[in-house]
Amino acid sequence: MCRHLGWLGRETSASALVLDPPHGLRVQSYAPRRQKHGLMNADGWGVGFFDGATPRRWRSASPLWGDVSFESVAPALRSHCVVAAVRSATVGMPIEASATAPFTDGQWLLSHNGVVDRDALPSVSAAESICDSALLAALIFDRGLDALGETIVEVGAEDPDARLNIMAANGSRLLATTWGDTLSILRRDDGVVLASEPYDDQPGWQDVPDRHLVEVTAEHVTLTELNSTKGH
Ligand code: GLN
């Protein structure tokens, strides 16, 4: 389904992360290389970034490849922490900017690559849209990002067909899960990229195994197995 990307490191531009790479999210919007579900990601896009501690978002329900306004402004959008996504809407979900990642609770930016049965989710206090991903984001915000792994294991137990790849950041931590779809890590001299698929063919990209939690901070990158039997 969707493709997403997270960045934590030195300040860089949205265009350097999303538009310029030869297989970045702009190209992944029409020609993803590792997408297991869906052919292209034409149902919208979102770029979220931290302006100091404040998350800001630019979202659209149109394809990223045709957005000339974003192309013009993206070189001037600079941040040390970014969460961006291109969307392939799940059948039955609304196609609108408010259903497009990244979602926010005012502190975190969060993207969901996957699908979940909305009836399998506990009720949540507030969601930006009736889209499955928006409801899942609201649940994760309710539970707190420190419990991200536990929440994914719990939702995965309730809906065994769910795919639950999450990307989330709060400006100093970048978190991601693999649960049914692809994720790669690139450690650069100036920071760390997590992405649904490599944005170029340079060496250094490492695939994350399925059912793992990744945490990136300024100091470290940690991978933890999500153990559905132990529930953590
Ligand atoms: N289920 C979500 C939606 O409809 C995410 C889909 C996806 O990962 N492509 O937007």
UniProtKB/TrEMBL annotation:
SUPFAM superfamilies: N-terminal nucleophile aminohydrolases (Ntn hydrolases). One of its GO terms (molecular function) is hydrolase activity, acting on carbon-nitrogen (but not peptide) bonds, in linear amides. PROSITE patterns: GATASE_TYPE_2. It catalyses: gamma-L-glutamyl-hercynylcysteine S-oxide + H2O = S-(hercyn-2-yl)-L-cysteine S-oxide + L-glutamate. One of its GO terms (biological process) is ergothioneine biosynthetic process. Pfam families: GATase_4. Pathway: Amino-acid biosynthesis; ergothioneine biosynthesis. Residues 2-232 form the Glutamine amidotransferase type-2 domain. InterPro entries: EgtC, EgtC-like, EgtC_Actinobacteria, Gamma-glu_amide_hydrolase, GATase_2_dom, Ntn_hydrolases_N. Keywords: Glutamine amidotransferase, Hydrolase. The keyword Hydrolase applies. Its EC number is 3.5.1.118. Catalyzes the hydrolysis of the gamma-glutamyl amide bond of hercynyl-gamma-L-glutamyl-L-cysteine sulfoxide to produce hercynylcysteine sulfoxide, a step in the biosynthesis pathway of ergothioneine. This is Gamma-glutamyl-hercynylcysteine sulfoxide hydrolase. The lineage of its organism: Bacteria, Bacillati, Actinomycetota, Actinomycetes, Mycobacteriales.
